[in-house]
Each structure stands twice: as structure tokens, then as C-alpha cells.
Amino acid sequence: MKIRFLGAADGVTGSRHLVTSAGVQVLLDCGLFQGYKLHRERNWADPGPLREAEAIVISHAHLDHSGWLPALVKHGWRGPVYVSPGTRDLLKVLLLDSAHLQEEDARRANRYGFSRHEKALPLYTRADALRALSLLVAVPPGRAFRPDGALSRHTLTFTPVGHLLGACAVTLQEPGRSGRRLVFSGDVGRQHDLLMPAPQAPDAADVLLVESTYGNRDHAQEDVATRLETIVNATIGGGGSVLLPTFAVGRAQALLLVLQRLKRAGRIPAWLPIVLDSPMAQEATALYRHHAAELRVPRREALALADGVRIITTGAQSQRLTASRVPMVVLSASGMATGGRVLHHLKALLPDPRHHVVFAGFQVGGSRGARLVGGEREVKIHGEMVPVRATVSQLEGLSGHADRGELLAWMARLKRKPEQTFVVHGEPAAADALRCEIQNLLGWRVRVPQHGEEVEA
């Protein structure tokens, strides 16, 4: 077995691992690079060896794990893409929305002339996304599956790991009853997540690829509801609004759950408008309600996530909302402020010290969200510099990623120690810290691969 690490090997995004197993090439994840420009530019590179993949397996629907699929399809790739049913449903929302944003960003750059290219082009289009969606093959989690075609001698198993609707670890077993097992963790969720059940662990692994987003720290023991209650009441008391840049899938639904509970308990005013300004978050919320049986919250709460919430549907409504002087709580994507409608809200709110911007998730280094959380006093939005006078803070307790201790506990539940473990999907400090923990506490053979490196496993 050979593994070539073509993404998420020197950072947290662009998850792409090309596995050669029993003469077949399989791509684990097909993610977008985000954050630093050096990484984002990889999205525009020729697919190179990725063209040789005969099948793709996607762990979950977040764009850093799935969002480059339409670009690969644009380059002519065709083949089966294996996903869980929940991931299939979310990708129908996420990939089309991503394509729309790519097209909108290119149109805006051409209209206002802030592209460094003569003509800005989208990375991919809605047509490319639709072609990618036509390749999806849904695989039920929890039992071994024998694919058709090139992978027909292998078995594939999805194991739910919390984190996000449909998110699973992937087990690829080589031919034969004693065939070697490669396990790819995808992104592992929290033990006590608000929405998702605790992560399950695969039975055994000969080779393990494990994420390390929070590999060098444990999450703060933060009471998210109390902190959000304090922020909301203080901000509206001063005549301001609270903006929650949110990941449209997973995080938006968790925030809605907390806000609904605060309102029902009378901890924030009943009159306070809660506004959801993200078409993708609206569609994702409907999917979470449809998959309510897969969540850890009571069905009635899942079905009531959007009750009384003001839904913004059109771009014109969103623009009018940014001019409103009425105190409110606004949830808008994207969660790292890299694009989407949230940028218009940031332009409107950041210059005014009455307002509060609360980031509720991990901010990739180099992203606009990371710069704001890091304390920058002006940021560029749509080609112009915007002063930062509003309060900016971050909620740690809503992270959907397992922390250092939870990752180690998840790995320790494997029934057979892997012969080799590779730490991926983490900033260098986090990945190396988790490597040390695995080596010292579990006694496993472990290393952090480099981008582009190929190894025998």
C-alpha cells in the first residue's frame, strides 16, 4: 500500500490523500485549500496524480474535505464518489452554494476591477458542481460495503464520528479476509457535542490517518449558553447588534439551538430578532430536521430550530438588513468570513463600537476570521479597507472538532494497534504535538507527513 499526501499535510485544509492499494488508486477526500494565499493557490494547480484516482471516498461534506470535487470534474475526471447518505444530502447544498460563490466572486472582481487577472474566472461553475453530484454513491454507515468497478475486491466501511451530519471515518480493507486495513479518521467530533452523538471508533487499523486540528490543546470548559447570553444582553443594551459569522452546516444549527433555549428560558429578550441570512444554512437546517433521528437532541427541538427566526432569502433583503438600526442577532455565512453574505454585514458593523462580532469556530490561519480574532484593526473586504471598532470575540465551546484528549481517547478505542499512524489535517504545531502524544502515551509508531510526500504503508 502506498499513500501520497496531496493536501492537509501541512495545514488544516485541502484534505486529499491518494492511496494505491492492490493495484487500485483511491482518493480519500477531495477538499478545497483555504486560509493562507500560498495554500489557496493550490486550488488552481493542475490535478496531476489526482487524475489517476479510480474512485473517491469523502469522509464528510465540509468544503475543506469535499469542495475541490467539482474542480477535478471540470478537469475531466469521472468515476464513483462514495459518501454516507447524510454527506450526499449536504453536498447537494454545499457544492452548489460553493459554485455560486465562485461565480459571484469572479463577477464582482470583474465588475469592480480588483482582480489581478485581466479577467477573473471562477474555480468551477454550477454545471461542474452538478456533474460532480451525479457521481455520488451513498453507502450506509456501520457495515462493510463491496463497491463495484475498480474497488470490487476491496471493502469499504463508514463509521459515524459525530462532528457533522453524515461525517464518518473511512475503513478501506484490501482484498482477502486478512487484507490490510487503512483507517482515515476524517474529522472526529466532540464527546459531548450539542447536536451530534459521540464519535464511534472503527474496529481496527493496520494504517491510521488521523486529523489533528486541535492536537495541541484541550477545549476550554466554556458554558456557551451563558457566554452568549452575556454578550447578547450587553450588546443590545448598548443599542448594538450581534453578528455570528457561522459555518452554514452544523455550526448554524448549534447556534440556533442555543439561542432558542435562551429565549425559551427568558435569558434573552423574547422580542429580540434572530435573523438567519444564509440560503445554505436555511437548506442545511431543513436537512438537519429531516435527519432528526441521527441527532442527540430531542426530535421536537430539532424540528423547532428555526421557529420564530427571521429568514432572509434574497440578496436584496440581505442588503436592506445591513442598513437596519434595530438591535438583533444575525447569523450569516461564511464562518471564517472568507466569502458570502457575512462580508456585507462585517462592512456595516465593524466600524461601529456598539456592535459585537462573535466567531463560533476554528479560524484557519490567514483567513479573514483569523485576522479579526487575532486583533487586526482593519481588514480588506471587497477590495477596500474596513476599520475594526466593534468588539470581536470567539466562542471556543462550540467547536465541532475533538480536542487533544478526545482524539487520544478515540484512537485508544481501536482494538488493534496500527503498524503506522500518520498525523494530518493540522497546523504544524498541532500536528507535531499530537504526534508526540501518540508516541509517548500510546506507544505507537507515528509521524507527520509532508505535503506531496509518498510513503509505503
Strand order of the largest sheet: 6-5-4-3-2-1-21
Radius of gyration: 22 Å
Give the domain tally. Answer: 2
Strand content: 15-25%
Largest sheet descriptor: 7 strands, mixed
Q: For this structure, what is the CATH homologous superfamily of the largest domain?
A: Ribonuclease Z/Hydroxyacylglutathione hydrolase-like
CATH class category name of the largest domain: Alpha Beta
Distance between the termini: 5 Å
Residue-averaged pLDDT: 94
Q: Briefly note the CATH topology name of the largest domain.
A: Metallo-beta-lactamase, Chain A
What level of helicity do the residues show?
25-40%
Poorly predicted sequence stretches spanning 5 or more consecutive residues:
none
Number of helices: 14
Protein architecture, described:
The protein is α/β, with parallel strands linked by helices. It folds into 2 domains: 2-217 and 400-456, 4-Layer Sandwich (Metallo-beta-lactamase, Chain A); 224-394, Rossmann fold (3-Layer(aba) Sandwich), CATH 3.40.50. The protein has 14 helices and 21 strands. The strands form 4 sheets. Strands 6-5-4-3-2-1-21 form a 7-stranded mixed beta sheet. It has a 6-stranded mixed beta sheet with strand order 7-8-9-10-19-20, covered by helices on one side. The protein is globular, with a radius of gyration of 22 Å. The protein starts with a strand and ends with a strand.
